[in-house]
Amino acid sequence: MDLKKNDVEKEEAEKEKEEEEAEKEKEQEEEKEEEKEQDEEEEEEEEEDEEEEEEADEIEQKDEIEIEKEEDPISEPNIEIEIPKKEKYSICLLDSKGNPKQFIVFSGTSQTMSEEEIKNHLFSNDEERNYINTLDPQPIYSSTPQQIHSDDTIRTIKKKIINELGTNKVCYEEIYLFSNYREKIKILDAYQQITGSKKTIGKTETLLEKQLLELENISNQLDKRILGQFLLNLKVENIESVDTEKQEYTYEDLLTFMPKEGSYTTSIPLGQKFSRSHNLLFSGNPFDILASEGDPIFQRSRENDLYVFENHLLMNYGKIQDNIIYCCLVDDVLEYAVDNSFEPKYLIDLYYPLLYKKNITNKELFLENQENLIRNNKELIRPDVIRQFNIIDSFYDIYYSRTSELPYIEKGIEYFDIIIHPDFDIPLPLDIIFKQIHSIKKIPFIKYNPGLRRENIFRLYTEEIAKNGKKIPFLKKSQIFNLSRQTGKSRQISLYIQHETLRQVLDIFLDLEYNGNMRIRCNLKKPISIPDLETIIFNSINPIILSINQFLENSGYTIALFEELKDKRVEIIQLDYGCKINLKKQMKLENLLGCLTTIFDINVMELDVTKNVNIQFVRVDNYVKMNAIAAIITDVFRRTANQEEVMNALMLNFSMDQDTALKEVVKYFNEHTRIQGQYVNKNIDIVDNPGFPVIFSKSPFDDKLVIKVSKINSIEFVDILRIYLDTIIRLTQYPESTNQELLEKMILLCNKKTKKVQIDKGIDNLIITGNTVPIVPLEIFDRNEDEIEEKEDINDFEEDEYKYIPLDEEEVEEKDEVKEKNEVKEKNEDKHHDESDDKEEQQIPLQQNPSEKTPSIKSNESNRFLPSEPSSIKSNESNRFLPSEPSSVKSNESNRFLPSEPSSVKSNESNKFLPSEPSSVKS
User: Fold this and answer.
1) Position 381 pLDDT exceeds 60
2) Cα 761 from Cα 764, distance rounded (Å)
3) DSSP secondary structure string, 76-92?
């Protein structure tokens, strides 16, 4: 038995040895295979490198540019680049007490700035420098060759900060950014917001204030702690007159130490935005939260929720004060919370939503997970990401280092469509407005669509009378028909304005909508700059607003004047930008493919400008790659906010039936994020953005390059696009017009193969936390009353039965007036149109040479007035230039200048000046 046992044990031992040897052999074979794979990968990489070098050599030979490849372009030389100060950003890290502990200047140059140079750059006055000198310990000062650009996303800026501080020290989720912003604030609006009182509109501001003071049941009283937080957030310092013994404060109390309207510095979060307006009780600086008993002062609200946008661009947050971005790490904020008895979960929810989303709600949980979070930096800060940063920097460097301007034939805005939103969600009294406004030669066509299945009413300017006594419209019949089709949606007054400048005659459309919106659009015949565009809008629209306000003020409603395109009330629906320049040689965009893919989505196989190159600009907010159907839906919905228009666009462009179009629309809204609109009368906004279409083309009959960018939705993009397009043209056509060392570096970067721009898969455009209130996806579309009315509305001109209201004193056409039949109208009108067409062209010199107009009068007080505008007079109230009509008169009531027609007469009833018919008419 013992022998048998020994034999069995020996056999088992031998089997185990054999199995071990077999496993070793397997491991050796696997190691050999891995080595082979590594060798093959290395060989492939070497082959790819050789191919890239060969391609680079070929490209260099073709372009006759000799480049020595002795240095890596990313770590290349000390090149002096003069970056404008307004484009140079700095990072300020705050300690646990909210004091600066480190300043990093993103200088964009490899030359290190001295501490004194950094201080001179950061601190514009002695007061700031003296404050910094009192700090103990003193902040650390440094500079970096990295750059921060206004078209960088908040996520990109955080990556650059991590790269600067150290990828093994800071994780992405523990960074919170904010900046200081100077903002005009009306104390009345602020008081109503922080007390929760509803806005009440009276006849004048004084009456409005009186009504507010008489309110008895205010849901949220202005007590001591709310007032303290409010004053701290606005950084109000002169508060010696505040009665600290009082327990509650009224609007009158605020006026004792604050003006009714003033500019205040507020801290705003970067990467977070309120759905409606900035809540003045929210502290953008987490170290400015006042300690208080009970619940925190600021609480989230469904009506004005705080959204988190990591893919928002820096440009969306206005003009950052001193270009300083403040950085708060979660360790310091949580230490501040402990010292001031704050709930850590509350602060993490507000300022670190990515940690909150991972259920990290206190310091202990953060320390447990910190190592794993830092490990993710390897994926965030990859070499190809750093290379993309360098390529974008090079685009700006080439532009900033230009030695001469490019000889553009033309460049600027070619089309604009904007909406000026009201301050209050109050219906506009369209009936009253239409009864008071009159057509004049400058505004020859006015259409009012009252809605509710009521027929359209028109006002047409006339200068001549037919033999049968009928007035002949100034515009031709075909123009009237065309304008009728283009204008006047339901519950809207549309004005057609012929605005003359020295360079061109513009057809501007102004739509007054029932919800208070003013929509202005124009297709420009020649591209113009942003300042020119603002002046044209100012001079053409504000006189109309002034005249309307004269009779609206008595009813307690006034329309705000247009100031500038960056006004927070102005929504850019669409801008089209274009430029044209002579080609010196064949344009080979494929030579720049490695750089172009960082700013464009390129899906075309051939980049031949003679065949039109259609690409998509992708450095936009919340970029999402969309197919053609989704892009159409996004574009039409943003322009119209009308589901019926969206469906019609799909049926027209993709030959869909109504059911299929409806399914596509429902599918789209279930797949793309929607939030509350930021304006008082805009309910829904779409988060995702497909980018801007860009077309490079060559003129068919000459060697001219034409570039068109359409569907731009922010005024800030115009300068950014100008920089990118200018650099592309310099690289391909005018290489001698910039720094040659930078040019060589850029070409090396562009010659290397690069992947297309990749959007981080781990980050959403809208960060949804447990407390965020998203808009639920659509399951069905219900057509609202306005859309039904609009579709069923009968166009009076198309029915060949129309009525118009010619300019005549006290002449207002009533709804029950008898219609004139088509046969009688055409018999009389067509005859006189035919006879007077040529005569009208001579009498109305709209097509005359603009250079023959009277030279403009320029004022030293304002540079808003452009030489291309007609002779103007100055408005004392707005300190701007307004164009004048012949024989203008002054309104005593409003102390404003209003344009009038020749031989104007005064209305005794309204004590206003209204334009009248010319004293003589032609038979």
Assistant:
1) yes
2) 8
3) ---------GGG--EEE
